[in-house]
Amino acid sequence: MDSLRRARVPRVLRVLRGPWSRPASQALALCVLTFCLALPLLCHRLLYSYYFLRPWFLDPRSEQALQHSYRRGQEALRFWQEATAPTFQTHPEPHLLVTVVTARRTEGRDFHYLLQVMQQLAGLLASCRGRRCAQVLLCDVESSPQGNEDAALLEGRFRTVRRSVEEKRRRSTEEVNMFEREKRDYVFCLQKGWEILRPHNVVVLEDDARPRPDFFPVVQDLLTRRFSQQSLYIKLYHPERLQRYWNPEPYRLLEWLGLGLLASSLLLQVLPYCSSFSFTPRHLLFFSVYVMVLVELVGRHYLLELRRASPQLYAVTPATECCTPALLYPGNASLRAARYLDGSFCVKGHAKDMLLFHMARSVPGERAHSLEPNLVTHIGAYSSVRSNPALPSLL
């Protein structure tokens, strides 16, 4: 009787194990475990993942980000109000000029975005160890210090330029939309930076684009690359939510495919050492698709963050349309960009970022590039030129 029972057990195991020993069943089991169990548990709090549970976590995360930005803004305010706050001088023909464009804000003033950005820049400049990483020019598009209190607080610390009263009066009498007004302010700052200092290279930051700690080393590395001197501009920021592989940008699709083939090839080289595994083209195809789906669902943004290990690892790709919080203009490209922008008119759906993008594509000899990952953090939850929601959201 016992021998009969022992004979039945292996037979039952063989029956149960039979279907799962087939490659198709094993592939299905791996996909279910990965995409339906493991990744949802690991990624449901990752903001830029497909698995992010927006109904549960988006509003709390947005509120937390607002509170953090508010505290950082108050700290920046206290920093610049102290008498010991640093002062930065400018000299003609700097190798790199950072122009910060600022305007009066009607909403979100307590967040002091401009003061946060300038405090970060001050810290980065102080860490340059005896050499001048860059010079900074504050471009206030208002005509008087009373129009922008944060800019007035910084006026004794950084060189500041403003519109004249006549320019402001002429500007106020012209009936133009907010997008055209924003473009004209941008052109004014590009032109003033060149007229005053004649810089060799220019970075233009909007007043809510906070530089990351490796800002200057990466910019300096970019300027040593040959392609940069042939560029109209290099974008230093692109919204994280738009960085996915599933995108109409051809280079991302090629990168996605290449990543899948590389990872699957490495995986297939390792598997034979772990088990009795035989390589076939079907395995290469399956694992390529498996890796591609995995990295897309987790989020390309998090893969890009690995490139921060070194300035040389940052990727340079063809520029995309949106947006302009931070742009690098090599050589005299800022003058060319100002001339192109000044000859065009902006409307809704065709703002200055779209104008620059189309100019780089349509003007012979001009090119535009984009840097990945981002070199600045966009901290502006409240816009100075567009209407704002009651509760700004991270997405």
State the secondary-structure class. Answer: alpha/beta
Largest sheet: 8 strands, mixed
Radius of gyration: 27 Å
Uncertain spans: 12-17
Range of helix content: 40-55%
Binned strand content = 5-15%
Number of strands: 10
Sheet with most strands: strand arrangement: 3-2-1-4-8-6-9-7
Mean pLDDT: 87
Distance between the termini: 67 Å
What is the N-to-C succession of helices and strands? HHHEHEHEHHEEHEHHHEEHHEE
Overall outline: globular
Number of helices: 13
Summarize the helices and strands and which ones pair or pack.
Layout: H1 2-20, H2 23-43, H3 54-81, E1 97-102, H4 113-126, E2 135-140, H5 149-154, E3 159-162, H6 165-173, H7 178-197, E4 202-206, E5 209-211, H8 215-224, E6 233-235, H9 250-274, H10 281-298, H11 300-304, E7 315-318, E8 326-329, H12 333-342, H13 352-362, E9 368-372, E10 376-378
Parallel strand pairs: 1-2, 1-4, 2-3, 6-9
Antiparallel strand pairs: 4-8, 5-10, 6-8, 7-9
Helix pairs in contact: 2-10, 3-4, 7-12, 9-10
Task: Describe what you observe in this structure.
- With 395 residues, the protein is α/β, with parallel strands linked by helices.
- The protein contains 13 helices and 10 strands.
- Helix 3 (54-81) crosses helix 4 (113-126), helix 7 (178-197) runs antiparallel to helix 12 (333-342) and helix 9 (250-274) packs across helix 10.
- The longest helix is centred in the N-terminal third of the chain and has 28 residues, at 54-81.
